Structures are given as structure tokens and as C-alpha cells.
From TrEMBL:
InterPro entries: Aa-tRNA-synt_II, aa-tRNA-synth_II, aa-tRNA-synth_II/BPL/LPL, Asn-tRNA-ligase, Asp/Asn-tRNA-synth_IIb, NA-bd_OB-fold, NA-bd_OB_tRNA
Domain of life: Bacteria
Quaternary organization: Homodimer.
Listed name of the protein: Asparagine--tRNA ligase
Gene Ontology cellular component terms for the protein in this record: cytoplasm
Coiled coil: none
UniProt entry keywords in alphabetical sequence: Aminoacyl-tRNA synthetase, ATP-binding, Cytoplasm, Ligase, Nucleotide-binding, Protein biosynthesis
Organism: Niallia circulans (Bacillus circulans)
């Protein structure tokens, strides 16, 4: 007997296989029963015809409860009507464990209830599809950077310094010393780029932000590439190449999942490099023309502003050259204009907001020292970072892509809480 996963069934058409599975759903009549089987690799319908199986097998199919676990034996058949394209004509069911009163039924549930049951909600078809897309984005990320000469480097999670401002830090104790959970691996990635040229990281980052929006998590995962001898424009080119590579990989490898999620793929098919660029100055003018009187030059954009700008494009758009005073200390000023920096945020289409923040970094020691002082940072804490500018300092650039916002955009899921297995939100540390 062939033991197969659901994803492998297309290899075994007309063959008899044994599959370990859970019962996601069922319906039956007097003569036929349909079991919606899931095993993690996929979903398939099992068909049990009363007249073709032993009476006890049909009775098991009729009485089995949602989320009970089974070994099912059956013959794989092509089925044009199912999205998967195959079904299993069941000949035998071995019950492994009977599940009782599974809380998440096929009917509608409220968000808080589903979040309380996140450990079970993950089993649903929609959540399964989102996690598969997330996995594909991670896989394509590693592929893209490895194929383009980047080395994966892992920055620390426990740190003594704060790259993205000191207000949103999770503080903890490192024995006697004060320590913080990493907000970004960037400063370490800059050191790594001076050793390995082109590097990228992928890891968890933490922000004690009191924001309760559909775009904010307290713990989120970031991909942070950093490149020596790479200047502002080249940095944007890497970003548009990378983001389009990821979108095209998902389109190619996650058709079933995008279909399950009801994603309009025609919108994703348009995501190819190059992406449009608009300066902060022009964005302000554009917003004023659109009737946003609440924003002035020097203010940071809120999500309504980002959404209004993104709506004019069907690709992600770079907003470049933000005012120096609203950006972190390490960003390289525009050589022609001191009041703006060589940075860009990449804004996703369809209202998903900023998915990338990046910039060229200051490589001049004196200027960086000045900035550390202006931002009232402790030079002792940043000593090692400043030292990078002492030994063969070079122009370098990098960026950080927020994985969950990217997953939300590509899957078309409204809120980032569904894009990470166990979201940490303002009011939620469980499950
Ligand atoms: O724009 P941010 O703060 O940039 C940095 O941390 C840089 N040091 C990255 C770098 O240049 N290496 O964050 C980068 C991205 C944002 O564009 C957004 O996608 C995501 O991280 N992000 C969040 N995602 C979910 N929840 C939050 N609270 C987020 N904060 C930032
Ligand atoms: Mg940002």
C-alpha cells in the first residue's frame, strides 16, 4: 500500500493510497458521504459510496466528528469540478482519534473568538492558504538573495542599542545590564556588509508601539538586506527586483492558495519592475491637490495619505527624499539638499501601506558623529557602529521589508493578525 500526503495524490491517479488526515467537514445522504479531508499538505474530498464499502465504513463516515483523525484508504481520481483537481474514492476508514465539540465550526465566528482559538483556527482552509503563501515568500526571498550573491547573516535579537528611535523599545535585563529586544538588525547588517559585501537577514523584530491598526504587530519578521558600494538608486533597483520576484513566485507556486483566498491575481500579475518613484515634495503637493489640508511639509504620512498616493498607481510606489528631521539618525543627506535624506519607503498598492523602509547610510565619520549628538544618542553605546566609518568607510545602502504586511498585500488579507501564526498584538500575548 502506498502511503501518500494529499499534495502527492496527483502522482497516484487510479492507484490505491493510504492518507493520514483530519476531517475538516462532512456531509452525507442515505447513499453517499463526502468527507473534506486535510492533512496539512492540502485538502481533498473523500467520497464514500454506501453500496461500494463495508457497512461499518459507511457508518463511520456518517457519524465521524469534525477534526477527528483518521487513516483513509482510497483510489485517487481526477475530478474536474474540485479546485484541487482530484478526489479520493474511499474504500476504508481507520479512526485514530475522535474529536469532540470542536469550537470552530463551518459557520461564521467573531474575530476575538477566532483569535482566542488561534491555535485551532490555523487549521482552517483560509489560514492554511495564508501560511503557505507566507512560506513561499520566505522561500523566494532566500532564493532571490542567494542567486544574487548575498550572504545570509543573523543579527542578534538581544541588543544594547536602538536603531529606530528610543521610544518603542522592549526593555529587559541582560544580567546586570539593560538590554532591548531588536527593533531592526540594520546596524549589525552594516557591519556584516563591510565583511561580506552583500548580506541579508531574516528574523523577528519588536516594537512596543501603542498602535492598534490593521498594519501593526508588536512582534513582526523583517528581511533586511545591506550592500557595500551600493548607492541610493541602486538600492531601489534591488528592491523592485526583489519584490517583483517574490510576487511572481507566489503567482507561479501558490495558485491553489490564491484561489482559496479569492485573490484577484490580475492585480498581482502587474507587479513587475520598475516601480514608480515620487519625491516627498511631490507627494505633499499631490496630497494638497487631493484636498488633504491636514498635512504640511515636514510631517510624516499617516495611512490615509499613503493610501491616497498608492491609489494612483497599480504597482508599489517609492516615496523618496523624506525630510531629514523625521527620519533616523543614520540616513545619508541628499548632497544637493541638506533638509532631505536619500531614503525611500515602498508603499504597496490597494491600501496595504508601507512594506519597505530603506536608505543610503551615512559613511562620513564626522557627519555621523554630529547626528548621534543631535539625536541625543549615547556615543559609547554606538562606539562599535561609529568605528565602521574609521576603517575603509564606503557608501552603502540597505532596506527592511516587513514580512507580514507583504503577506497581507499578496494574499489580499485585510489585517496583519492573519499573516503570522501567533500574532503579538497590543492586547494579546495568548495563545
Ligand atoms: O521602516 P522601518 O522602521 O525600517 C527599519 O527598521 C530599517 N532599519 C530597515 C533597514 O533599513 N534595514 O521598518 C521596516 C518595515 C516597514 O516598512 C514595515 O513593512 C515593517 O518593517 N514594520 C512593521 N510591520 C508590522 N508591524 C509593525 N509594527 C511594523 N513596523 C515596521
Ligand atoms: Mg518606516
Amino acid at each position: 500500500m502506498i502511503k501518500a500526503t494529499i499534495a502527492e495524490l496527483p502522482k497516484y491517479v487510479d492507484k490505491e493510497v493510504k492518507v493520514g488526515a483530519w476531517i475538516a467537514n462532512k456531509r452525507s445522504s442515505g447513499k453517499i458521504a463526502f468527507l473534506q479531508l486535510r492533512d496539512g499538505s492540502g485538502f481533498v474530498q473523500g467520497v464514500i459510496v454506501k453500496s461500494d464499502v463495508a457497512e461499518e465504513v459507511f457508518q463511520t463516515a456518517k457519524s465521524i466528528t469534525q477534526e477527528s483523525s483518521v487513516y483513509v484508504t482510497g483510489t485517487v481520481q481526477k475530478d474536474e469540478r474540485s479546485p484541487f483537481g482530484y478526489e479520493l474514492l474511499v474504500t476504508n476508514i481507520e479512526l485514530i482519534h475522535t474529536s469532540t465539540d470542536y469550537p470552530i465550526t463551518p459557520k461564521e465566528h467573531g474575530t476575538e473568538f477566532l483569535m482566542d482559538n488561534r491555535h485551532l483556527w490555523l487549521r482552517s482552509k483560509r489560514q492554511h492558504a495564508v501560511m503557505k503563501v507566507r512560506n513561499e515568500i520566505i522561500r523566494a526571498t532566500y532564493e532571490f538573495f542567494n542567486e544574487n550573491g548575498f550572504v545570509k547573516v543573523d543579527p542578534p535579537i538581544l541588543t544594547g542599542s536602538a536603531p529606530e528611535g528610543t521610544t518603542e523599545l522592549f526593555a529587559t535585563k541582560y544580567f546586570e545590564e539593560d538590554a532591548y529586544l531588536s527593533q531592526s538588525g540594520q546596524l549589525y547588517m552594516e557591519a556584516a556588509a563591510m565583511a561580506l559585501g552583500k548580506v541579508f537577514s531574516f528574523g523577528p523584530t519588536f516594537r512596543a508601539e501603542k498602535s492598534k491598526t490593521r498594519r501593526h504587530l508588536i512582534e513582526f519578521w523583517m528581511i533586511e538586506p545591506e550592500m557595500a558600494f551600493v548607492e541610493f538608486d541602486e538600492n531601489l533597483e534591488v528592491q523592485e527586483q526583489y519584490v517583483s520576484y517574490v510576487v511572481q513566485s507566489v503567482l507561479k507556486n501558490c495558485q491553489l492558495e490564491l484561489n482559496t483566498l479569492g485573490r484577484d491575481v490580475s492585480k498581482l500579475e502587474k507587479i513587475t519592475a520598475p516601480f514608480p518613484r515620487i519625491s516627498y515634495d511631490d507627494a505633499i503637493t499631490f496630497l494638497h491637490e487631493k484636498g488633504f489640508d491636514d498635512i504640511e511639509w515636514g510631517d510624516d504620512f499617516g495611512s490615509p495619505h499613503e493610501t491616497a498616493i498608492a491609489e494612483s498607481f497599480d504597482k508599489p510606489v517609492f516615496i523618496t527624499h523624506y525630510p531629514t528631521k523625521i527620519k533616523p539618525f543614520y540616513m545619508q543627506p541628499d548632497p544637493e539638499r541638506e533638509d532631505v535624506v536619500l531614503c525611500a519607503d515602498l508603499i504597496a498598492p490597494e491600501g496595504y501601506g508601507e512594506i519597505i523602509g530603506g536608505s543610503e547610510r551615512i559613511h562620513d565619520m564626522d557627519l555621523l558623529n554630529k547626528r548621534v549628538e543631535e539625536h541625543q544618542l549615547d556615543p559609547e553605546t554606538y562606539k562599535w557602529y561609529l568605528e565602521l566609518r574609521e576603517y575603509g568607510s564606503v557608501p552603502h545602502s540597505g532596506f527592511g521589508l516587513g514580512l507580514e504586511r507583504t503577506v497581507a498585500w499578496i494574499t489580499g488579507v485585510e489585517h496583519v493578525r492573519e499573516t503570522i501564526p501567533f500574532p503579538r498584538l497590543l492586547n494579546r500575548l495568548y495563545p
